[in-house]
Design brief:
There is one protein chain. The protein is of the alpha+beta class and 369 residues long. The protein is built from eleven helices and twelve strands. α7 runs parallel beside α8, α7 packs across α11 and α8 packs antiparallel against α10.
């Protein structure tokens, strides 16, 4: 007797990797939540679909029905064009299932690991480690600079007291430039106070960001919102999240040279790995612009302090944003191509936090009141 789809579904539901169950004729019978999330579809959409229709233009699956050995067939770095138009790279293993070595094949188990996601997560974790190392160097350098800087400022103040008012022009310049350098050092080091977390409706913050952007640049920037109203409150520091999002939004506006379309988007994602820990659910916020994009070389360093693609930029906005988001247990990444740059921010969602269902329109009205 063949293994039923319902029993197969129960067997694979708790797997953290994407698992698909095909019958002997290679029709899809079951898929676990991790698989639905990876392929961005549900079993209701593709139940009983043939494997080559699910993954069109992929010759790798053409001869699955010829498999006779019980051990899995493994393919690394397989690029898949999906049924719904998406594309991704996976490591894939396919195992024929029999009750015993002489029995007929009862189905095929396909397990897939998203290589693109692994590379992204590895890249983001490496960037965080590199930035932490850079921050340690900056702290030491700032300490060495602040001491003589304070001495210069103090000497200039003492000298100014000995001079008549009309001759203090140069001492005022010294004091002013010393203060400016002090402020720059403080900004380079980033926030040093721990976050004061509370439950927060993220859509209210995003609507406030939209209002600020529109007030700063007027009608030359179109700000669109695309919110998932079922997202629960998140546990973050409101001021730090506001500052991080505002830095990212302003950076996008500057990249578009104050003319273009900015989109603020929220979604729920399942089985997201952040800081070497997997969460069943996570909030993803996207800040997307249609500017010229970020070069590939600059993209690898975009969150470093003093790195910027603009001659007049300080290169501190995104660095500070990353620090604030990491302090609140979040993760930020950036993808870019000409005409589309997306900064994505993830925060864990916990079951104990009750949903605060609030449509985007209502959030907008409250933010403006």
């Amino acid at each position: 007797m063949a293994l039923s789809a319902s029993l197969a579904q129960k067997m694979i539901d708790n797997q953290t990797t994407a698992v698909l169950w095909f019958d002997p004729q290679l029709h899809l019978q079951a898929i676990n939540p991790a698989g639905e999330n990876l392929l961005k579809l549900s079993i209701n959409q593709v139940h009983n679909i043939q494997v080559q229709n699910l993954f069109p233009d992929c010759e790798y699956f053409a001869h699955l029905g010829d498999l006779t050995q019980p051990h899995p067939v493994i393919e690394h770095g397989l690029r898949l064009n999906l049924y719904n138009g998406h594309s991704l790279m996976v490591d894939c293993s396919i195992t024929p299932v029999r009750r015993n070595s002489k029995a007929a094949i009862e189905g095929f188990v396909m397990e897939m690991v998203n290589v693109d996601q692994q590379l992204r997560l590895s890249r983001e974790e490496n960037l965080i480690l590199q930035r932490q190392a850079a921050q340690n160097v900056l702290r030491g350098l700032a300490h060495e600079i602040k001491n003589p800087l304070g001495g210069l400022r103090g000497a200039a103040q003492l000298l100014a007291r000995e001079l008549p008012q009309q001759q203090r022009e140069y001492t005022d310049i010294i004091i002013g430039e010393a203060d400016r350098l002090q402020t720059l050092l403080d900004r380079m080091l980033g926030p040093r106070t721990p976050p004061h977390k509370e439950l927060l409706n993220v859509h209210r913050v995003l609507c406030r960001i939209r209002q600020l952007v529109e007030s700063e640049v007027g009608s030359s920037i179109v700000v669109n919102t695309d919110f998932d109203p079922s997202i629960p409150d998140i546990f973050v520091d409101p001021d730090q999240l506001h500052q991080a999002l505002l830095n990212i939004a302003r950076n996008a506006v500057q990249a578009m040279q104050n003319r273009g379309v900015l989109c603020l988007r929220t979604r729920v994602e399942r089985r997201v790995v952040m800081h070497n820990r997997q969460y069943k659910m996570a909030l993803r916020m996207d800040v997307q612009d249609n500017g010229p994009g970020i070069s590939e070389d600059l993209l690898e360093q975009i969150f470093y302090p003093m790195v910027t693609g603009r001659a007049e930029g300080t290169g501190l906005g995104l660095s500070i944003a990353q620090t604030l988001i990491n302090q609140n247990d979040g993760l930020i990444s950036c993808s870019s191509k000409p005409g589309q740059t997306v900064f994505s921010i993830w925060f864990p969602l916990y079951k104990k936090v009750q949903p605060s269902i609030e449509p985007a329109g209502r959030a907008s009205r409250q933010a403006s009141s």
